[in-house]
Amino acid sequence: MFQDFDDLTDPSCGAPHAALLRAELKRLNLDGFLVPRADAHQGEYVPPHDCRLQWLTGFTGSAGVAAVLGEEAAIFVDGRYTIQVGEQVDMAVFPAQHLITEPVTDWLAARLKPGQKLGIDAMLHTVREVRRLRDICEESGAELVTLDTNPVDTVWEDRPEPPIGQVSLYPTELAGRVASDKIAEIQTAIREKKADACVLTQPDSIAWLFNVRGSDVTHTPLPLSFATVPAEGKPSLYIDGRKLSNSVRDELSELTEISEPGSFKSGLAALGGAGKTVLIDPALAGIGIAEAITDAGGDLIEASDPVLLPKATKNEVELNGVRAAHIRDAAAYIAFLAWFDEEVAKGDLDEIGAAEKLEEFRRATGELKDISFDTISGAGPNGAICHYRVSRTSNLKIPKDKPFLIDSGAQYIDGTTDITRTLAVGTVSEEMMRHYTLVLKGHIAISTAKFPEGTTGAQLDTLARIDLWKAGLDFDHGTGHGVGSYLGVHEGPQRIAKTGHVALKPGMILSNEPGYYPAGEYGIRLENLEIVTEPKDISGGERPMLGFETITLVPFDRRLILSAMLTADERSWVNRYHLKVRSDIGPLLDAKDRIWLEQATEEI
Questions:
Q1: Global pTM?
Q2: How far apart are CA 473 and CA 470, in angstroms?
């Protein structure tokens, strides 16, 4: 299987590992150190080699940071992980703080003393982060020290080796464009910014630019690497040569100069030494990258990674691929739902069994390359943990009379999927149905939204929440994230969230996933993927409007819908959606599953 269910964490590691780190900090004459959940690429998925926060604290979530001072420490996580952090981390050693409302900078400002030295790994903290950290240190009379080596690595005795996953070429018939055209587009963008070159730190940007895929991290086909792209001439790719077969190396050599990662810093210094002006993304590039250029005499221009928007706005070939992937995935998922209804009634099905069976149905397509993330299979109270990861220790039998939440996705060579459904088990209460229907109303509001060009995800986010707000409820995660094309299941810069300030453009793919999570009881989330559509005229309107095309084709659970709470338009939307699911996916199913689908998509 692509997913395992081993326990990856042990809260008891906190005290001994903190002691080891403090001893090393004392040797280095440092009074504190920050350990983020990040690698040098600032990616969502990091290889075991770079899971320093997990080693130190036991926390396995995708965002967070630990601060370690001589006599005090803390871990900072966002609202998705407030329950998880309490289960995985020794709170006596690393008390949990909210990453957004109680940021690490405020915590440090209240504790740093004049003359103290706070250390950071220069490759793990972005230019933007370091500015704020330096301000805090200066205000406290302390000093921020950027390190070329990480003290955690020094004391981490059984640290895994770096990954050397093989790189493959991504065919033009799926990418829709040849790599040389993409490079030319990015070089034009670099020149428009009055820069001589650009540094790319994001492996998905590099994968998209050179039409390659890799296998260095879990569930995402990324080759960990860095690149520099000059305004004129060949780019430089810094990647472990063991990842490249002779044929892949020959193909890439036509596009780029290939060097080992160990020469990346010297390549940056060469740009600086030549007096070049280099574009870096201050939200993604480590301060060590910026300093390697400026210390050698170069200048910086700070701007967004120029690959992000072209990568996010999919071409028609990519969109056709992801549509095909979703049809294939929907047939597998509906077969799973039919099996689930029959199996869960027996009373012995557990979270792991459900996750394993869903992967089995996807494997049966013959096209599955990987799952796109560890399936969130949450029964009862585990469903209330937004990013719950089922393990053999946490695994629960799926109880009757409560909703069951399952959030999962697949990686196919033509597209990436991500879907969440909340399923009725036994006889659910009217309150559970009310909560489900409120979430569904928010989901429909996003799916049916029409909006002018220039609209951002932050402007749409309220649509998903307004009915929950009217009921005094909310959820502590964004409404939607970008999705890649056989790349990351979470992709920027587009998102539907309070912090989503990038204008949505045609061809972008986003999730639509409002939810509600009464702690300790159950979770509800409903997620489809949506493509932003081209502007269209509206009868009687004055300007064309963008909208969404829903590409996930799996029924919602009618047993959880309180039809009376829906408006006539909302009921019509559900019925039209279910009709499309039945007509598009029904012919792909066997007779038994087709009967299940017909019943599941009856009109409400």
A1: 0.94
A2: 7
